[in-house]
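Many introductory courses stop at the sequence. We go one step further.
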Amino acid sequence: MRANLIPPAAAALALGALLSAAAGPAQAAGPGFQYVGQDDRVHGVTSPKGCAEAEGGGGRAVTNHTGLTASLYREPHCKGRVVAVLRPDAVTPVRPYFASVRFSVPG
């Protein structure tokens, strides 16, 4: 399965690009939940509610500016093991990947 992973140097560059894209005034224009997929492209969830599939072959680096807690799952449809839990305003790498994300109910 390692053949599907991007090299650490590329992952670091992708994370840097994601962090740069999420910083500053441009953040308000993009989705609140963004990640770098295994396809090395930045993806986003524009309406964070319930369970959402991670397009692009699962995510790597994640930024969560939704105001909601995001639970990242290894399997599609928010099944299987939780890989990570991101509180609002968290930015983190995720290894090796996640396949879906469930957003907490606002309360």
